Amino acid sequence: MHNTSTSEARMGDLLVLLHQLNRITSDVADTAQAQLFALCANVATVFKDRFTHFSRDEDLCKFYFDLLACDDRFKELCTVVKLVMVLSHGNAAEEGGFSINKELLIDNMHKETVVAQRVVFDAIQNAGMDIKNVNITHQMVSAVRQSSAAYMTAMETKQRDRAGEEQNMREQRKCKDLISSLQQQKRLKLDELKSQTQELDKQIAELKASK
Are residues 81 and 8 in the same domain? Predict the structure, then answer.
């Protein structure tokens, strides 16, 4: 919002596009444009504290929702902002998560281990990257106490899953072998039938020639 003229020009282009796509009416577009002018005029006064203390680390959607949604003076502008905010903001957050996962990964690490380490990392990150600020809850203490039993249960589940997969593979191989055998029998029967047909055709031709 530092450059009012640029903001207003971009909003004008956006409103035209949304109107052409039949997402808003012309009345909503005109009213939203006027409301943007009013918002820009009050940035340095009424809304000075909100914009001054805004951080790039904050959720932009939440910032504008808190600013506009509860204020009837910006009802149409809020409608337009909602339409824009549902669009993809890019993959910056996801790509950042991928880089963190890359740092965590080691050879042959299971998916569950990656997820668990990310949960721990995210908790520490939410605590300002200071483990002293992490709130140790009763649920966390209980989870630690039950971790050995949970590990044994997970191992048993994996063993059952592995046994089931091996059984499925054996059944698939058996089925594949049976299909191959039947196809071979079919080919032999067809060859035999073809040979018999050729012999009959030969006999018919000989009889016709003898007349």
Answer: yes
Given a cut of 70, whether residue 92 has pLDDT beyond it is: no
Cβ distance 81 to 34 under 8 Å? no
Give me the half-sphere count of Cα atoms (radius 13 Å) on the Cβ side of residue 161.
6
Residues spanned by the domain of 52 = 4-85
Taking a C-beta distance cutoff of 8 angstroms, is the pair 22, 14 a contact?
no
- The answer to whether the pTM exceeds 0.85 is no
- Rounded alpha-carbon distances, angstroms, from residue 55 to 52, 58, 120, 126: 8, 5, 25, 16
Share of the chain above pLDDT 70, in %: 86
Are 8 and 81 found together in one domain? yes
Q: Is residue 152 part of a domain?
A: no
